[in-house]
Amino acid sequence: MRSALRRTGVTIDRAHLIRGALAGTGGLLAAFSSLAVAELAAALVRPESSPVVAVGGALIDLTPTPVKDWAIRTFGTNDKVVLQAGIFAVLGLLATVLGLLAVRHRRSGALGVLAWGVIGAAVALGRPDSRSWADALPSLAGAFAGAAVLHALAGRLNAGTSAPGARGPDDRPDGRDRRGFLLTASAAAAASVGAGALGRGLVSSRRGGAATSRAAVVLPTPGSPAPVIDARAALRIPGASPFTTPSEDFYRVDTALVVPRIDAGAWRLKIRGKGVTTPLTLTLQDLLDGDLIERDITLTCVSNEVGGPYVGTARWTGVRLSDLLGRAGVEPPSLGGPADQLVARSVDGMTFGTPVEDVMDGRDAMLAVGMNGEPLPFEHGFPVRMVVPGLYGYVSACKWIEDLELTTFDAYDPYWVKRNWARRAPIKTQSRIDTPRPFARPAAGTVLIAGVAWAQQRGVDRVEVRVDDGPWRLADLASEHTTDTWRQWSLPWKATSGTHTLTVRATDRTGETQTGERARTVPDGATGWHSVVVMVT
Ligand SMILES: Nc1nc2c(c(=O)[nH]1)N[C@H]1C(S)=C(S)[C@@H](COP(=O)(O)O)O[C@H]1N2
Ligand SMILES: [Mo]
Q1: CB 292 within 8 A of CB 432
Q2: For residue 159, what pLDDT is reported?
Q3: Total domain count for the chain?
Q4: Which of 380, 507, 508, 523 is most exposed, with minimal Cβ within 10 Å?
Q5: What does the pLDDT read at residue 72?
Q6: What pTM was computed for the model?
Q7: What is the pLDDT of residue 19?
Q8: Which of 205, 181, 238 is nearest to 18 (CA)?
Q9: Cβ-based neighbour number of residue 218 at 10 Å
Q10: Ligand at shortest distance from the CA of 299
């Protein structure tokens, strides 16, 4: 008797476990179906309307600045992969819970899925790049599919228990219809994989269209080519940054979960707003047919920590912004123009505010169509982006640009300014030790310390290096290409064994030496001297 009881107990526990496991699996499968159908619908509507992309984008926007700063610092360009993994983990957990709920209250499980779909739809409609009600469809279609799958699967697990009076002698306590569950589950899984694959296929064929349009772009020889880079301005020092950063190695900082792939043929740029007498709508061909300039310019991100990687130099080809604004009838504020802020908008809804005075003061501010001799890579803004020497990227370097509006700083705050960053942000003078690396163990003897320093628009005049608390010593500077590019520097050091701290600082041509006072990146760029600790053996 006792053993029979125990056996019954064990059976029931096992049955509960199995049912629970199946219910959880059902929840996960419902979530998978819902995502797959949503992806297919998003492929038809607009890839960015996918709930994963919309929710991910919303989370990025909602993330407090310090956390965002930390994520960029910690995960770098992988920050988005980490975010997506997080979204899937939360979704998986939620789906499991809904699956378990569904076996008890069949309807609540399905309603739960629908509720999530409604939230997804609301988020998709609220995205800054959303332009149509259709953006709600992928989330809703996915939710219906997920709810249907969950409802059907829960039914298989409940058959009998949910039907009054159906409990008979061969009712199995471990969930009724395991065979039916497996059949339904397999069918749902197969259909979802099919829908997902179809969605992917559609998106990639669209992306293929954008890639074809990029491959067809021919960059004309610029009327105003970049000065030849003197060999003395582009040294090759092992372990130190090359003068020109290859596009593949160029840092990438943006909020785009999916890199926009714009079909160049369909791309248009509007120039409009305060003081514009002739509003313009430009095609890529209009830009390519214009007076092209080519310039080497060092780009810098305001989120770059002292010694950080978010800085690089590329050769940009484009049309002078002052030419285009002039054609539109814009006057800079110094000549009485009514607009002091140029607001750029990208296809992904990002906004930037640049001083009109800066882009019209004679510097090489441009709408770039080329990077290092090729059409812009998709990651770096194809087909057109803004580049303004001397200003941090978040106030100037709009990628995937589609709109330029002349307005005032009083009238409008762009994306990052709404998030505690400064309205105006010229790049601060900085220097970085590239080699030796932190905690390197070079052998005693001559060690070459080398790196880069930048002070766009002003130019780097001097770089000094200090070992421990010793005197500042002048480093050898590569020659200056232009004031808008960084300068490489190096200093041979007679390293003695032991632990040493190497510190660098630069002085720009205005005579100002970068401050050793440490400041965070928020609100307008980090300050402080870069130090590297090495163990000489
Ligand atoms: N559309 C869009 N453009 C953008 C951003 C963005 O988030 N979205 N980030 C800006 C920032 S903060 C910087 S520093 C530069 C970086 O350009 P890169 O990724 O080509 O190096 O792009 C700018 N352009
Ligand atoms: Mo940036």
Answers
A1: no
A2: 52
A3: 3
A4: 523
A5: 74
A6: 0.83
A7: 84
A8: 181
A9: 7
A10: 1
Check whether residue 186 and residue 123 sit in a common domain. yes
CA–CA dist 412, 471 (Å, integer): 48
Same domain, 199 and 167: yes
Phi and psi at residue 356, to the nearest 5°: -60, -40
Q: How far apart are CA 229 and CA 231, in angstroms?
A: 6
Residue 521: the pLDDT is: 94
Residue 240 lies in a domain: no
| Domain end point (choices 385, 419, 453) | 419
**Calpha distance 113→95 (Å, rounded):** 8
Q: Is the CB of 399 under 6 A from ligand 1?
A: yes
pLDDT at 5: 42
Choose one of 262, 396, 399 to mutate for the ligand 1 pocket test, by most ligand atoms within 8 angstroms of C-beta.
399
Cβ of 316 closer than 6 Å to ligand 1, yes or no, is no
106-126 and 137-158 helices cross at what angle (nearest 10)?
170
Q: Tell me if the bond preceding 523 is cis, omega within 30° of 0.
A: yes
Same-domain check for residues 11 and 81: yes
- Same domain? 404 vs 267: yes
Query: Does 307 share its domain with 162?
Result: no
Q: 513: part of which helix (H) or strand (E)?
A: none
Is there a domain that residue 234 lies in? Answer: no
Which amino acid belongs to residue 454? W
CA angle 316, 317, 319 (to 5 degrees): 125
Is 380 close to ligand 1, i.e. is its CB under 6 Å away?
yes
Measured CA to CA, the distance from residue 374 to residue 215 in angstroms comes to 10
Same domain, residue pair 388 and 439: no
Q: What is the pLDDT of residue 12?
A: 60
Provide the CATH number for the domain around residue 496. 2.60.40.650
Split the chain (537 residues) into runs of 10 and give each run's mean pLDDT: 46 77 92 93 88 87 81 76 87 91 88 91 89 91 94 79 42 64 92 93 86 96 97 96 98 91 96 98 98 98 96 98 98 98 96 98 98 98 98 98 98 95 98 98 98 98 98 98 98 98 98 97 97 98
Three-state SS at 116: helix
Note down the domain range covering 531.
Answer: 430-536
Q: What are phi and psi of 144, to 5 degrees?
A: -60, -45
The per-residue pLDDT for 11 is 55
Q: In this structure, are 411 and 518 located in the same domain?
A: no
Q: Is 371 in the pocket of ligand 1 (CB under 6 A)?
A: no
Closest-approaching ligand to the CA atom of 344: 1
